[in-house]
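Input sequence (60 aa), recorded before submission:
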Amino acid sequence: MKKTIIFSFSVILVSVMAILFIDNSNDHEECSQVKETKTFANGATAITTETHICKEEFNL
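Predicted structure, token format:
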């Protein structure tokens, strides 16, 4: 019984630590958003696109 409780607590602890690690390391500090607006020949239609540019080597 005691081994089961210790094992369960260990699994929960490791899971919480993994979630916190992924959340902290996935901060996107080196990323940026680029907005580009295109206007067609008639002048009435404009399309805005937003692109996510990320220079991080790994993205979790």
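Checked by second reader. The chain has one helix and two strands.
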